[in-house]
Fold each of these.
Amino acid sequence: MNHEKIKELILLYHDGELGEKDKKEVEEHIAHCPECQKEFEEMKKLEEVMGKMELKKPGKEVWEVYWASIYNRLERKAGWILMSIGGMILLFYGGYKFVEGIIQEPSISLFLKVGILAFLAGAVVMLVSQIKEQIFVYKRERYKEIEK
């Protein structure tokens, strides 16, 4: 097996992911190759150091702030959703009342009435979406304090 392939297998060797055949091949190679033997030993030392390391456990205050921020974000998202739905309902109802005269007009076909309502519903959804997007962009505008 070539030299570069052995270097790749050294990582797998230390992770315990090699079969017996490859494991034996790596051991035979590093017994005769000082460069790979050095890399094998460095990897072994690194593994020992990593095994002794412990992650710092966050304090209670960190968790309280973390969960509070999650709840705040969830509340805001729920608020946006409810406000969007409410806005669509109100705009749709207002539009419906606006065209109610047209809808109740017996001389206008049902197909045209459905088309008017579909158009109105689409316009309401697009309007609410556009307003929401503009507010979102404004809140995150990095350069809003800079005068042009």
Note: The mean pLDDT is 81.
Amino acid sequence: MSALLVVRWIHLVAAATWLGGLLTLAALIPALRKAGAERALLQAAARQFARVSWVAMGIAVLTGLTQVAWMGLPWSYTRLQVKVGLVLTAIAIALGHQLTARNSSPALRGALQGVILLVSLGIFAAAVAI
């Protein structure tokens, strides 16, 4: 297996970890709330997800940059720009959400999580289009 394929595999696993975690939380948190879970439990779950997801996002960014440096520009530079723009948007919203979640209402937190999920799905769509 070539080194480039290993980098691509790591990139995809990291991206799947990010998006898979978002999808899991999107289903899990409302169910936990409905079941009467304490806020401390929800916060602990969110903190653990943040640890895993930020590492995954960092790895995805590094391996993505490595692929571009290694292969040169892909077939569609415009599509790559869209993907990079969406990644930066997801990072900015996720960071803002993480920094303000403690003082935000559940409705605002849920809305921001929904936006992060939609932007992340857009990243995957852009990646498939490249």
Note: DSSP finds four helices and no strands in the chain.
